């Protein structure tokens, strides 16, 4: 998978927004704003790689990328909290 410099900047920006959004959606013990943003950036990378491979298409443009990344970040936050919390969401 090749990621250009411009794609990397977009993924980072979208990850910031998605991390904040995921932190608002998934409440609990929390990782704080910085932790949620880092999880959001990781979720953006996961979503930008995984969703096209699975054939999931919600549209085009920045809004669809934010939705993809927010879904990826929410899933990643739930998995991290499940592992960290000893099995509780």
Automatic annotation (TrEMBL):
<feature type="transmembrane region" description="Helical">
    <location>
        <begin position="66"/>
        <end position="83"/>
    </location>
</feature>
<keyword id="KW-0812">Transmembrane</keyword>
<feature type="transmembrane region" description="Helical">
    <location>
        <begin position="6"/>
        <end position="23"/>
    </location>
</feature>
<dbReference type="GO" id="GO:0005886">
    <property type="term" value="C:plasma membrane"/>
</dbReference>
<comment type="similarity">
    <text>Belongs to the UPF0410 family.</text>
</comment>
<keyword id="KW-1003">Cell membrane</keyword>
<feature type="transmembrane region" description="Helical">
    <location>
        <begin position="30"/>
        <end position="51"/>
    </location>
</feature>
<dbReference type="InterPro" id="IPR007341">
    <property type="entry name" value="Transgly_assoc"/>
</dbReference>
<dbReference type="Pfam" id="PF04226">
    <property type="entry name" value="Transgly_assoc"/>
</dbReference>
<protein>
    <recommendedName>
        <fullName>Transglycosylase</fullName>
    </recommendedName>
</protein>
<keyword id="KW-0472">Membrane</keyword>
<keyword id="KW-1133">Transmembrane helix</keyword>
């Amino acid at each position: 998978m090749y990621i250009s410099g411009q794609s990397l900047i977009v993924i980072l920006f979208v990850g910031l927004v998605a991390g904040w959004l995921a932190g608002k959606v998934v409440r609990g013990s929390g990782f704080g704003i910085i932790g949620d943003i880092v999880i959001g950036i990781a979720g953006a990378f996961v979503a930008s790689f995984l969703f096209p491979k699975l054939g999931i298409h919600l549209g085009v443009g920045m809004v669809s990328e934010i939705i993809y990344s927010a879904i990826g970040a929410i899933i990643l936050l739930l998995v991290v909290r499940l592992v960290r919390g000893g099995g509780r969401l």
